[in-house]
Amino acid sequence: MSETTEDQNVRVAAICDQMAALEGPLLPILHEVQEEFGYIPDGALQTIAKKLNLSRAEVHGVASFYHDFREEKAGKHVIKICRAEACQAMGADALGDQIRRHLKVDWSQTTADHKITLEPVFCLGLCACAPAAMIDGKVVGRVSADRILEKVGS
Amino acid sequence: MSIKVYVPLDSGSVALGADDVASAIAAKAAKTGADIKIVRNGSFGMYWLEPMVEVETPRGRVAYGPVSTDDIDALFDADFLTGGAHKLFLGRTQEIPFLKSQSRLTFQRCGIIDPVSLDDYRANEGLSGLENALNMTDEEIVKAVTDSGLRGRGGAGFPTGIKWNTVREANGDQKYIVCNADEGDSGTFADRMIMEGEPFVLIEGMIIAGLATGATKGYVYTRSEYPTAIDVMNEAIEVARAAGVLGDNILGSGKSFDMEVRMGAGAYVCGEETSLLNSMEGKRGVVRAKPPLPALEGFLGRPTVVNNVISLCSVPVILEKGPEYYRDYGMGRSRGTIPIQIAGNVKHGGLYEVGFGLTLGEIVEQIGGGTASGRPVKAVQVGGPLGAYFPKELFDTPFDYEEFMKRDGLIGHAGVVVFDDTVDMMKQARFAMEFCAIESCGKCTPCRIGSVRGTEVVDKLERGEEPDLQIELLRDLCETMKFGSLCALGGFTPYPVLSALTHFPDDFKPRALDIAAE
Prior knowledge:
The complex is a heterodimer. In chain A, 46% of the residues lie in helices and 13% in strands. By secondary structure, chain A is an alpha+beta fold. Chain A folds into 2 domains: 5-65; 77-151, Glutaredoxin, CATH 3.40.30.10. In chain A, strands 2-3-1-4-5 form a 5-stranded mixed sheet, covered by helices on one side. The radius of gyration of chain A is 18 Å and the shape is elongated. The model of chain A has no long low-confidence stretch (mean pLDDT 96). Chain B folds into 4 domains: 3-100, Glutaredoxin; 118-327, Rossmann fold (3-Layer(aba) Sandwich), CATH 3.40.50.11540; 330-420, Ubiquitin-like (UB roll) (Roll); 425-517, NADH-ubiquinone oxidoreductase 51kDa subunit, iron-sulphur binding domain (de novo design (two linked rop proteins), Up-down Bundle). In chain B, 42% of the residues lie in helices and 15% in strands. Chain B has helices spanning 11-15, 18-32, 72-77, 97-100, 118-123, 128-134, 138-148, 160-169, 190-197, 199-213, 227-242, 273-280, 309-321, 323-327, 360-367, 401-406, 425-439, 445-448, 450-463, 467-484, 488-492, 494-503, 511-517, and strands at 3-6, 36-39, 53-57, 60-64, 89-92, 176-181, 217-222, 258-263, 304-308, 330-331, 334-335, 337-344, 350-355, 377-382, 389-391, 415-420. The longest helix of chain B has 18 residues, at 467-484. In chain B, 58% of the residues are buried. At the A-B interface, helix 2, helix 4, helix 5 and strand 5 of A face helix 1, strand 12, strand 16 and helix 17 of B.
């Protein structure tokens, strides 16, 4: 059942009220909104702007600056593969190529069946366990393409 | 009494299966009726041995590793709960050579204690630095930190005491301590490890910074890529608050300090202190021009100390044992210890805390044990994505701020990433430019546009289009970025590019010509 924009705005406004007392509340609010909806709904920008006495453009500017905030829902599973140097030294480029070929997507894309989103990440702090990835929020080190795909059932 | 079994909660250990190992041990113990208590500790930072399981025995803690769930039955059969012999047996933890040869000052309790047990922390001399600081004036604390020779461990190497003094002397009704835990450099994980393994030392360091400068509020700004560190820090802050370590009456002194954790949103540039402050204020993480210095006009325009995690975590031991104790480690103007993170294609990857002064060769070959692949080392990148690539010919460079600078490199946050001879240095140079283009905040032209042009120039070079001209262009572009960028992102991207070009010129020969020649 899809919810109405009205319902959505009520929930966004509640998040804003809950965070209003923080010093610099915008990032915590955006994180919370994304946690709630899985992405930042377009309508949320206006609600947040009104609550924080900002322009919608300012809120959009912030939300679009950071890699974390999504404009649309991700797939059921999210695979983040580290593309930074320590992982490159252990074959991360080849790993990324294999996964992209198998899923038939490029970086930051979601498979056609909306099951899997593939994202690059630049360092998970697992540089002594390279190559590393994060699958649905769980970290894996010294990982192979087979193991990644097995974990998302592909 | 139950036997204590330690299985790290550290992300690195968990990435290698520590959660499953802990569950398997618990299940097997329940089945056999063994009376055990599993403690999820931090990691000692020996990642080739992770998941490393320890057991408390009458002869001390002994370790087994790397343990997989397949080993659990055999470990129980071998009576590992009393330190029985098994092929994964490593002996007493503290006697493992990699650990024994370190000088652990900052990381002294990491791995040893239950990260969120304040009792454990206190039983291991935790909070003694804070207790001493509470009996000192702000000036005396600043003097101790200045005398210790501690310099910013985030990479810039600015003397911590001098920064604190600027904030101490600044006027303001509200001052802040901001801990820069936005550890985005590839090859570095010291901040993550200590936040996950010994969060109270960061809390203690931040309170001391507050006492020294008159700041009563602190923030830890860390990465969304570090969910475990965030959870552990938050839990430790709650514990510290409940115990009266944080709050309006620090250890009954009548002084106040409180803190919270803030999460970034996947922007590398937010590790730069001014863009970090903008991000905390809820703005785009765009770099600010300096002056004004954050020490005078920082978070919300107020006087703010911005220090790296490791800088702040090094403060308690300085206040506990005195500045001389800390200063006696190290070489030249690089005093104290540095947690070197050895990563990438290396046999013994992990964290090695030691006084400054080891040579790069000792770090890579002796401590790191050479490459994991067994092939020869070709290049070592020191200091993250903005650090230079060093060839073997420069392995005699001592780990020291100034010595690295003399050789056109930087130690940065002390990450050392090892590459074997299969690495293509032109590709690495291109990646440095590409990464800068992806992560540039867009404020200044040399970084925003220079990085894009940089990748294009390398592409032309690869295709063999007027190679001499491209190399000249690339060098010229790097000069512009180095001197014209507002912050270290654009300013230091030339380090990996130029070092690759200078030390590995053969890799920059046009590929098309190679093929033609074959």
